[in-house]
């Protein structure tokens, strides 16, 4: 994790195609991707964003996945 580049909340929102407010709400509710908090600063690892997106991948809108079962 030492040499990784971190993304700000705004950058992570752009990367995931979510609004900053949506990503912030998901972080507050525990539904969002893993993040790192350094003091008051919140940053995201690209790998954590990719893993979170993969876990939410669906093949159909009726596919609720593991969370909804």
Euclidean distance between termini CA atoms: 34 Å
SSE topology string:
EHHEEH
Number of strands: 3
Biggest β-sheet description? 3 strands, antiparallel
- Structural class determined from secondary elements: alpha+beta
Given the structure, what is the number of helices?
A: 3
Based on CA atoms alone, the radius of gyration comes out at: 13 Å
Mean pLDDT: 89
Strand order in space, largest sheet = 1-3-2
What's the domain count? Answer: 1
Helix content: 40-55%
Low-confidence stretches: none
Strand content: 15-25%
Q: Could you say which overall geometry the principal axes of the C-alpha atoms support?
A: globular
Description:
The protein has 69 residues and is an alpha+beta fold. It has one domain. The protein contains three helices and three strands; from the N terminus they run E-H-H-E-E-H. Strands 1-3-2 form a three-stranded antiparallel sheet. A hairpin with a 2-residue loop joins strand 2 and strand 3 (41-45). The model has no long low-confidence stretch (mean pLDDT 89).
Keywords:
69 residues; alpha+beta; 41% helix; 3 helices
Fold blueprint:
Blueprint: E1 6-8, H1 9-16, H2 20-29, E2 36-38, E3 41-45, H3 46-55
Helix pairs in contact: 1-2
Give a nutshell description of this structure:
The chain has 69 residues and is an alpha+beta fold. 41% of the residues lie in helices and 16% in strands.
């Amino acid at each position: 994790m030492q040499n990784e580049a971190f993304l700000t909340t705004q950058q992570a929102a752009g990367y995931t195609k979510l609004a900053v407010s949506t990503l912030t709400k998901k972080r507050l509710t525990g539904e969002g991707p893993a993040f790192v908090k350094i003091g008051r600063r919140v940053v995201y690892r690209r790998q954590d964003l990719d893993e979170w997106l993969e876990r939410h991948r669906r093949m159909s809108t009726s596919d609720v996945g593991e969370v909804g079962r």
